[in-house]
Write a structure and sequence with these properties.
The structure is a single chain. By secondary structure, the protein is mainly alpha-helical. The chain has 3 domains: 2-43; 63-217; 225-407, no CATH class. Helices cover 65% and strands 0% of the residues. The chain is built from 16 helices and no strands. The termini are far apart.
Length: 407
């Protein structure tokens, strides 16, 4: 079997080498060279080498970096598929078994993933052809992140529009992969949140389709933990507010993730597995992750000291397990392009992401998922943070050099 696969790969390589001159300069299909290069790079390791200057050679190129991130997202994707089915059958009072539950969620989530990749890559290919440059692998991650931040009932045409918007206005207008200011996946979610709030908020959007044809069992609301907390914070009657806040699932349930929510955000266990992969491989910054957690805990503790309502009185650690906080911290805030770059800047950046996430969700019930806005907000200030960190280092070194010269 292994020998047969080797023969097939060699035959494919030989065929690509045969048709490659048609896509090179002077060939009849030269205008499609970006498309051919993208396909060849996807199938084989590029044979390009540097010609001038000093360069650091590393086996981990952009393609492998993006593939590792996608691998880190797989646990959240698989659990999200199962949870979509679980929430649906729970809403109608049935339990058909693990594989039936997973298969239902698989059929709901897979079209969202496919539409995200097709819409985004189509725009990427069009811009690559128009500009005459290579198709970058950056969308391999964005194409997976976008579906994981959405509710399972989102219409597919909205997924396509949001993805196209994110690629054009989040990446291409800035020059493409590596030049974007904002995280494209979060930009897509923000676009949908403000453009189509009815499909991105409420209770029933978190429970998969077919609900209109079934009778919900008594006691099932589909409310997320954040929506319950937000409702409790604006309830004037203290006893009713306390009753609402007690409906938030227990810590273990929040950690495992058998709760309503966006496809990829519910299971903190799956997210932590992904965080371990990213941290072990060095793809994502552990500084940002840890500092964001510390920032979130700090802000939650400050609210505990204030204690103006039942939401502010929640234990700080519970805030980390509610909503998409951990998902945003692990997979969004650590984006190497839109995050801070300096070691000290990463700590400041992550800490502020964590603080603003909790601040927004508690102070403004209209935006219960504060992590989205917090990361986008700090994306704006990441370059400024790095600037002041670098300037501070320069001033300190100049001061030290001046003192040595005097001595």
């Amino acid at each position: 079997m292994k020998q047969d696969n080797t023969i097939k790969m060699k035959a494919l390589r030989k065929y690509l080498d045969k048709i490659k001159p048609n896509f090179q300069k002077g060939g009849k299909l030269h205008k499609f060279h970006s498309t051919f290069d993208a396909l060849e790079t996807f199938l084989y390791v590029p044979n390009k080498v540097t010609h001038v200057g000093a360069h650091i050679r590393d086996a981990v190129d952009m393609k492998r970096t993006m593939i590792i991130v996608v691998m880190a997202l797989v646990p959240t994707l698989l659990f999200g598929m199962w949870n979509v089915g679980f929430q649906y059958y729970k809403s109608i009072g049935q339990d058909p078994g693990f594989w039936s539950v997973f298969f239902f969620g698989f059929l709901k989530v897979l079209p969202i993933v496919i539409v995200s990749y097709v819409a985004g890559l189509t725009v990427e290919f069009i811009f690559a052809q128009f500009r005459g440059h290579e198709v970058n692998e950056g969308f391999l991650v964005s194409g997976m992140l976008i579906p994981l931040t959405l509710p399972p009932n989102i219409p597919l045409w909205m997924v396509a529009i949001a993805t196209i918007f994110a690629v054009i206005f989040g990446k291409e207008v800035f020059g493409g992969t590596g030049m974007n200011i904002f995280n494209p996946a979060l930009l897509a979610r923000a676009f949908l949140f403000f453009a189509y709030p009815a499909q991105m908020s409420g209770d029933l959007v978190w429970t998969a389709d077919l609900i209109g044809n079934k009778m919900l069992v008594d006691g099932f609301s589909g409310a997320t933990s954040l929506s319950l907390a937000a409702a409790a914070s604006i309830e004037p009657n203290l006893s009713k507010a306390t009753e609402i806040i007690h409906k938030i699932p227990d810590i273990w349930t929040l950690f495992v993730g058998t709760i309503p929510g966006s496809i990829g955000e519910t299971s903190k266990l799956a997210i932590l597995i992904g965080a371990g992969i990213l941290a072990f491989t060095g793809i994502a910054s552990l500084r940002i992750m840890l500092s964001a957690v510390v920032g979130g805990l700090t802000m939650a503790y400050i609210f505990n000291l204030a204690g103006s309502n039942v939401y502010m009185q929640l234990p700080p650690y519970q805030h980390l397990l509610m909503g998409g906080f951990l998902f945003a911290v692990v997979f969004m805030a650590t984006d190497p392009v839109s995050a801070a770059q300096t070691p000290t800047g990463k700590i400041i950046y992550g800490f502020l992401v964590g603080m603003f996430s909790i601040l927004i969700r508690v102070i403004n019930p209209a935006y219960p998922e504060g992590a989205m806005l917090a990361v986008l907000f700090m994306n704006c200030f990441a370059p400024l943070i790095d600037h002041y960190v670098v300037e501070s280092h320069i001033k300190r070194r100049l001061k030290r050099a001046k003192q040595k010269s005097i001595a």
